[in-house]
Amino acid sequence: MTRDFIHINDFVILVEEANTTTLEIDSCGFDEPIVAVAFYGSGNVDLAVKYGQKRKDFQYTKGLSLSFYADQEVVFEHAVSANKSLKCIVIATKLRNLEQLPNQEGELFSDLLQELVHPKEHYVEGPSFFMTPEMENIVDAFFSNNYSGKTKMMFFRSQITALLSHFFGQLALQQEKASKPSHREQLNKARDILLENLENPPSLSELSKAIGFNTTRLKKEFKAIFGVPVFKYLQNERLTSAHKLISQKEATVQEAAWQVGYDSLSSFSNAFAKKFGYRPSQIK
């Protein structure tokens, strides 16, 4: 388990990462009421939120951005296992400090997260959604950079503002679309089918049929929910999976390319470099 704390104005940023070969429970809480946004990386750890006799569970956290209010009564438990590692960034501010935040950030919280600023429970869950590729790239960079010491902290600070800006930008777009009909369950099913078949994914027509949509509707609504077209989402997941295989020395570059469905090593390497900014052969 590694934890880095970064203080920026009245924000506290917690960067957590944990890997294990056996099941371990990592618990944490806060010493006074806070409003926060959590961003989950590719580890896909399980999360349980406990307060009083109540409990909220999250079994699929990969790529999730989750806003919430929590006081001292709330306990957050991450179940870290061999296949579900913890990669999480939490940007938090004390509730009493909201009005002191610079650059109108306090107003953004008050306008877009009203239920969190005026809580009626020990834990209040605000808006959540799966991150855009730009947000995922920022989160991935937190856990794949090779910096250390002061340089590492400087890098973290430079990314936080961008990540928070993307969150509020996407939140505003989501609220604009709130009045439109949603078919999240079917779209989640389409996403899961893609994730389960990275090496040999279905065609667009096969995927549409599996969830009861026509292809035009699938393309439109998938992009509206996940921020990218269907097969761009698939490509991002393939490359993220390949990065993990190579960095953890579970596969060579060639083997990783094959395992995620690339027949051409050069195509894989070019796509990898475009997403991460360096080629797979450069992973240390």
Tell me about this structure.
It is a single chain. With 284 residues, the protein is an alpha+beta fold. It has two domains: 2-176, Jelly Rolls (Sandwich), CATH 2.60.120.10; 184-282, Arc Repressor Mutant, subunit A (Orthogonal Bundle), CATH 1.10.10.60. The chain has ten helices and ten strands. A hairpin with a 2-residue loop joins strand 1 and strand 2. Helix 5 (184-196) packs across helix 6 (204-211) and helix 8 packs antiparallel against helix 9 (253-259). The two termini are 20 Å apart.
CATH topology group of the largest domain? Jelly Rolls
Task: Report the count of strand segments.
Answer: 10
Order of helices and strands: EEEEEEEEEHHEHHHHHHHH
> How helical, in percent, are the residues?
40-55%
Beta-strand fraction estimate = 15-25%
CATH architecture of the largest domain: Sandwich
Please give the count of helices: 10
Q: Largest sheet, if any?
A: 6 strands, antiparallel
Give the spatial strand order of the biggest sheet: 1-2-9-4-7-10
SSE map:
Layout: E1 2-8, E2 11-18, E3 24-28, E4 34-40, E5 46-51, E6 54-58, E7 64-70, E8 75-80, E9 86-94, H1 105-112, H2 114-117, E10 123-130, H3 133-144, H4 149-176, H5 184-196, H6 204-211, H7 215-226, H8 230-247, H9 253-259, H10 265-276
In short:
The chain has helices at residues 105-112, 114-117, 133-144, 149-176, 184-196, 204-211, 215-226, 230-247, 253-259, 265-276; strands at 2-8, 11-18, 24-28, 34-40, 46-51, 54-58, 64-70, 75-80, 86-94, 123-130. It is an alpha+beta fold and 284 residues long.
